[in-house]
Write a structure and sequence with these properties.
Number of strands: 0
Distance between the termini: 7 Å
Largest sheet: none
């Protein structure tokens, strides 16, 4: 009986530094703060209808997307918890913003459906990887760039909806960022699927040879 691999044998996005087991680190605290910003944004945007405050929360969440990882590498505080928290915060921000924006018709449902379809594809790939004993693939720079573009687009689109005097310019900038982010989001998803397929073929090859 073949032995399943414990995890994906792929290079990490954190350089050659092995992740540690630290919990209370500055990068992790930033990631926790970003997670707390998700329900705060939903409350401000959907309950209070405080669009200006919601824009501020979204802008902070988007601009700090790269900060936690950069600090972790600079301070040598790369941790396994941080590797989970960072992409989790990114996805929660994107999903929460899409649901809220669709509910208030800031973005059309077709745009939301296109992004959610990519998430479903990625979840299916992760499920297949887990069957073969692999964990999630490492974050790729294309995916990080797509996430950054989307998180930058959302507050600009909200600004376009909330401030009529800058609506035209903000809408043009916001949608340019959003569409580029969507395209790169799917490119990154395709790369993850190809990577998952290679790992599955390799695992099957080892099983057949055993």
């Amino acid at each position: 009986m073949s032995r399943r691999p414990a995890r994906a044998e792929q290079p990490r996005d954190t350089g050659d530094e092995a992740p540690g087991n630290q919990v209370l680190t500055l990068p992790n605290l930033i990631s926790f703060g970003r997670l707390l910003g998700v329900p705060l944004f939903l409350y401000l945007f959907l309950v209070q209808r405080a669009d200006v405050a919601a824009v501020v929360v979204l802008a902070i969440g988007g601009t700090t997307d790269w900060v936690d990882g950069w600090i972790a590498r600079r301070l040598h505080q790369v941790s396994r918890l941080g590797e989970l928290l960072d992409p989790l915060a990114d996805r929660l921000y994107i999903l929460a913003t899409l649901v809220a924006f669709t509910a208030r018709e800031v973005v059309p449902w077709q745009f939301t459906a296109a992004l959610l379809a990519r998430e479903v594809l990625l979840l299916a790939s992760l499920a297949v990887l887990r069957r073969y004993g692999y964990g999630p693939p490492p974050v790729h720079y294309v995916g990080k760039t797509a996430t950054f573009l989307l998180l930058a687009a959302f507050p600009v689109l909200l600004l376009a909806a909330a401030a009529t005097d800058v609506a035209t310019a903000a809408s043009a900038i916001g949608w340019a960022l959003a569409w580029w982010g969507l395209v790169l989001y799917w490119v990154a998803g395709g790369m993850y699927v190809v990577q998952a397929a290679r790992l599955v073929r390799a695992a099957r090859g080892r099983g057949a040879a055993a």
